[in-house]
Specification:
This protein has helices at residues 4-31, 60-79, 84-106, 110-126, 137-158, 164-183, 189-208, 217-237, 249-259, 261-276, 289-295, 300-324, 330-353. The chain is globular and about 50 Å long. It has 361 residues and is mainly alpha-helical.
C-alpha cells in the first residue's frame, strides 16, 4: 500500500516535471532558430513531408530526453535498483535520441538511420530486454529486433499531424502506470520513468495541440520509439500474472497489440497501400490513417480526439486482458481479437475509399 508521504512525493514529482516540460519547451520555442525546422520553403530542402504547411521548430524530443534523464536519476537515488537491464535501456534510448537529433540536424541517410535502429535493438537484447514468447531464443531475438525497429519507425511515421504521437504515447505510458498501481509495484524504477514521461509529454502537448507551435521531430519520435518498445517488451509482451508466472502466449500477444494498436494499424495500413501501389513504405506522404480521417471530414483536432478515445479504450482493454480476465480461453481471444481487427479494418477501409490529394510537398 502506498504511504501518504510517498503519494505526496509522486504527486509533487509529477507536477514539477509537467512545469519543467512546459518551461523547457517554452524556452526552446522562444529561442528556436533553425534546428529541427520543418516544411521549409527552400526548394532544395528535403525534409520529411508533414501535414501542416507552416515551418515550426522540432524541439520537443530534447525536452523528453532531459526529463527522462532526470527521472532516471531520481529513480536511481530513490530505489537503488539500477541493474544491467535498466542501464541497457538507458544506453539504447540515448542512442535513439542521438539518431533522431542527427536526423533533425543533418537529414542523415536512411541506411545509417536503420543501422542505428538495429544497434538500439541489439543493445536491448544483449542487456536482457527481449521478448520471451517462444522456446527458441533465436526466434525471440529476431522478434525483439523486429519489434524495436518497427516501433521506432511506427512512432516516427505516426508523428504526421498535431498531437497524434504525443497523445498515443501518453496513453501507453499511462497503461503501464495503471498496471504498477494495480500491482502495488511502486518500487519499480519504471514507475518513476513512466510517470516522468507522462509529465514530459503533457507539458509538450500544450505546444503540440492543434494549432501546434512545435513538433517533437525525429529526436522525439526516435527516443519515444525505443523507450516505448522497451516498455512494451517488459510489461506487455512479457506480462506476468499476480503470481509472477508468465501469462498465456495469446494473452500477451493481444495485450501488446491492443495497447500499441494505433501505431501498428497506421504503419501496417500505410505499408500495405504503398506496396500495392509499388511505392516505398519509407518515403513520406499524406496517406496515413490520420490524413484519411481528415479527408473524411474531420478537423485536425477531431482526428486527435478520435485517436485519444481509441487509445483510452485500448488502455482499459489491455489492463483488463492482463489483470482481470480470470479464465483465458477461445472466447477471450475472439473478443479482444475482434476489437483489434475492427479498429484496424475501419482505419484501413477509410484509406481505400478516400484518396489523398495528388500533390506531395
Amino acid at each position: 500500500m502506498l504511504k501518504v508521504n510517498e503519494l505526496l512525493f509522486y504527486i509533487s514529482f509529477f507536477i514539477i516535471l509537467v512545469g519543467f516540460s512546459a518551461l523547457i519547451n517554452g524556452l526552446f520555442l522562444k529561442f528556436a532558430r533553425t534546428l529541427g525546422m520543418r516544411n521549409s520553403n527552400n526548394i532544395n530542402d528535403e525534409t520529411i513531408i508533414r501535414w501542416g504547411s507552416t515551418s515550426k521548430p522540432a524541439f520537443g524530443g530534447i525536452s523528453f530526453y532531459i526529463l527522462f534523464l532526470f527521472s532516471f536519476i531520481v529513480a536511481a537515488f530513490k530505489h537503488n535498483l539500477i541493474d544491467t537491464q535498466v542501464l541497457g535501456i538507458l544506453v539504447s534510448v540515448s542512442l535513439g535520441f542521438m539518431i533522431g537529433l542527427a536526423d533533425d540536424a543533418y537529414n542523415t541517410k536512411p541506411l545509417l538511420k536503420f543501422l542505428g535502429q538495429v544497434l538500439c535493438a541489439v543493445i536491448l537484447v544483449v542487456t536482457g530486454t527481449q521478448i520471451k514468447l517462444f522456446e527458441n531464443d533465436l526466434v525471440n531475438i529476431f522478434l525483439t529486433i523486429f519489434w524495436v525497429i518497427g516501433m521506432m519507425n511506427s512512432i516516427n511515421m505516426l508523428d504526421n499531424m498535431d498531437a497524434i504521437t504525443t497523445s498515443v504515447s501518453i496513453f501507453v505510458f499511462l497503461t503501464t502506470l495503471f498496471l504498477f498501481v494495480i500491482n502495488g509495484d511502486f518500487n519499480n524504477v519504471f514507475f518513476i520513468i513512466c510517470l516522468g514521461q507522462v509529465a514530459a509529454l503533457l507539458g509538450f502537448l500544450y505546444f503540440n495541440w492543434n494549432p501546434s507551435r512545435m513538433y517533437m521531430g525525429d529526436t522525439g519520435s526516435m527516443f519515444l520509439g525505443v523507450l516505448l518498445a522497451a516498455v512494451g517488451i517488459l510489461f506487455f509482451w512479457n506480462a506476468v500474472g499476480p503470481d509472477g508466472a508468465p501469462l498465456e502466449f495469446s494473452r500477451r500477444v493481444l495485450a501488446a497489440v491492443t495497447v500499441f494498436l494505433l501505431p501498428i494499424a497506421d504503419t501496417t495500413t500505410v505499408t500495405i497501400n504503398r506496396l500495392l501501389k509499388k511505392q516505398s513504405p519509407f518515403v513520406g506522404g499524406k496517406d496515413h490513417t490520420t490524413h484519411h480521417l481528415s479527408y473524411a471530414g474531420l478537423s485536425d483536432r477531431e482526428v486527435a480526439l478520435v485517436f485519444c478515445v481509441i487509445s483510452m479504450i485500448s488502455t482499459f482493454l489491455s489492463i483488463y486482458i492482463i489483470r482481470f480476465v480470470k479464465v483465458w480461453g477461445p472466447q477471450s481471444i475472439a473478443l479482444f481479437g475482434a476489437y483489434c481487427v475492427t479498429i484496424f479494418s475501419i482505419l484501413y477501409y477509410l484509406t481505400r475509399i478516400k484518396r489523398p490529394p495528388k500533390e506531395n510537398k
